[in-house]
Specification:
Layout (H helix, E strand, L loop, with lengths): L2 H17 L7 H9 L12 H4 L5 E4 L2 E3 L2 H11 L6 E5 L5 H8 L3 E6 L2 H14 L5 E5 L14 E4 L17 E10 L3 E9 L2 E10 L11
Parallel strand pairs: 3-4, 3-6, 4-5, 6-7
Antiparallel strand pairs: 1-2, 7-8, 8-9
The structure holds S-adenosyl-L-homocysteine.
Length: 217
């Protein structure tokens, strides 16, 4: 069997066993995971077993590509769909960016580390050519005001407390933000904005790399 068909088998198994059987029921999320080859988002030479294991994996610069189940779980918390505008903070490998684009969303994605942003852009556009994605190298701690308001915001690194500027960049008509929050002990949090009201929900305990905070000027 060639490695492309082995990867396709492992991808299908990941979607069934690690996502669908574990409670990911949104078909559009499952379909997007079927379409995006995770092997294009890990360093060259990574074994297929590591590529498709249900765990984070190092992508260099002290960062990791997130665990498939956690990416899917966060997207299910986001309740997003085609045509939604989404701000992603922490492009990393671009794996989640590709999933968002494959789901038909308009994506603005920010990454602090230029080398990661460059390789992510290349990998994402090879998988979803022509997708509506803006890749920005820069600090997303305070979101990205020029593209606001967003229907959805998803943060792939953990701040120790809620950054001040994110909630105000949400669409007032049920815009939603999902992020991991905390230091050593972190939880996934969702915040839904309804006009001036914010509804916060806590969810799973998780372990993400820290969201880098800009230095005080
Ligand atoms: N979803 C990504 C996760 C990457 S890890 C993936 O699956 O590959 C989190 C990323 O957030 C890292 O690449 C890190 O460089 C980036 N990051 C951390 N703090 C940031 C900040 N303030 N602004 C933008 N990106 C940040």
């Amino acid at each position: 069997m060639n490695s492309e068909s082995s990867a396709a088998i492992l991808r299908m198994r990941m979607v069934h066993r690690d996502l669908a059987d574990a409670g990911i029921t949104d078909e559009s999320i499952l379909n997007a995971f079927m379409k995006v080859p995770r092997e294009d988002f890990v360093p060259p030479g990574t074994s297929l077993t590591d590529t498709y294991g249900n765990h984070p994996y190092p992508i260099g610069f002290g960062q990791t590509v997130s665990q498939p189940y956690i990416v899917a779980f966060m997207l299910q918390m986001l309740e997003c769909g085609p045509g939604n505008s989404v701000l992603e903070i922490g492009t990393g490998s671009g794996y989640q960016t590709a999933i968002l684009a494959a789901m038909g969303m308009e994506v603005v994605t920010l990454e602090l580390i230029p080398d990661l942003a460059i390789s992510a852009r290349k990998a994402v556009l090879a998988v979803v050519p022509g997708a509506d994605i803006q890749f920005i190298v820069g600090d997303g701690y305070n979101g990205w005001a020029p593209g606001a308001p967003y229907d959805r915001i998803v943060v792939s690194a953990a701040p120790s407390r809620m950054p001040d500027m994110l909630e105000s960049q949400l669409n007032p008509a049920e815009g939603r933000l999902v992020l991991p929050m905390g230091e050593w002990f972190q939880r996934l949090i969702s915040v839904t904005r309804i006009g001036d009201d914010l509804v916060m929900r806590k969810s799973l305990p998780v372990r993400f790399v820290p969201l880098v905070k800009p230095k005080q000027q």
